[in-house]
Amino acid sequence: MNSKKSKKLLSFIICIIISVSCVAGVYNGISIATVGNKQFYEKGIATQAVADECNKQLNQKYKTLAVKSNLPLDVFYSVTVKFNTQESLLQSIQALFDENDSLLRNGSRYGYFADTIKEYADANKLSITKEEIDLTSREAEQIYCDTVGIHGLEYLAESVAEKREASTRYLSFCVLTVALCVALLAFLYKNNWHRALSYASVGAITGGFAGLLSFVSILAFRLYEEIVIEPQAALLAIDAMQRQVLLYRALASVGVLLVGIALFCISQYFIDREAVRRQTRYLKILSNK
């Protein structure tokens, strides 16, 4: 194999390495900003849409408790006014990272129900024992914790920290790999830099297209991980967040693809200009003869 063929083969291998590094870089770069960032979970789960769904479930469950306890629905459902549901969801998510109780069993909801039931009973001259108030308040608190408190993600804090650390390490490796590949291409084509740029751009184009195709396929066929989490409304939010991560990765791949295309156009411009220059020089030599 002659040196020219060896150079082309090596350049082809470098293109593949750049392509793989681009896909891996996009994957890990987006991971740092999303699944490796606790704010991504706070903003993704503690939304008004999830809060509204939780309120609907609270309304249904407290209707049953109201019938069971012979107390008005407002005695229980008024907890959503005292404790804003969206803020409670945020508090629950933050508790996962602070190693506190994400189920919101801190006694404040129980105290609210106990005081509200007692005030209602006194105002309406109802005979309710302390034991009955205690049992009803605890049941109301449990309903709230089951419906609004996050459970099933106790591993989240450790998982997010691990993903962030690993993704940062892998992203750095990908960036370094691409830089080394570009440097090697520059060395191979030190007298023809636009040819080196052409190979590097092809690697970026291939990587951007491969990433776009893979992430869109995963998104379209719902091949991402299924997570078990309660309440049900939060599960819907997690599903939406996973789709959002894949969308971000697809968009980042488009960015890499566009950068690659731009670099390829630049390299081709200089390659064509050099070809025209050589052709012109050749024609001048012929005319002089």
Question: Overview of this structure, please?
Answer:
This protein has 289 residues and is mainly alpha-helical. 82% of the residues lie in helices and 0% in strands. The protein has eleven helices and no strands. Helix 1 packs across helix 10, helix 1 runs antiparallel to helix 11 and helix 2 packs antiparallel against helix 6. The chain starts with a helix and ends with a helix. The mean pLDDT is 92.
Head-to-tail CA distance between termini: 37 Å
Secondary-structure element order, N to C: HHHHHHHHHHH
Residue-averaged pLDDT: 92
* DSSP, total strands: 0
**Could you describe the largest sheet, including whether it forms a barrel?**
none
User: How would the global form be characterised?
Assistant: rod-shaped
Low-confidence segments, ≥5 residues, pLDDT <50? none
List the SSEs and their pairings.
Layout lengths: L2 H31 L4 H8 L2 H22 L3 H5 L1 H4 L2 H14 L9 H16 L6 H19 L7 H33 L4 H28 L11 H57 L1
Helix pairs in contact: 1-9, 1-10, 1-11, 2-6, 2-11, 3-8, 3-11, 7-8, 9-10, 10-11
Features:
289 residues, mainly alpha, 11 helices, 0% strand, rod-shaped
Could you give a quick summary of the protein structure above?
This protein is mainly α.
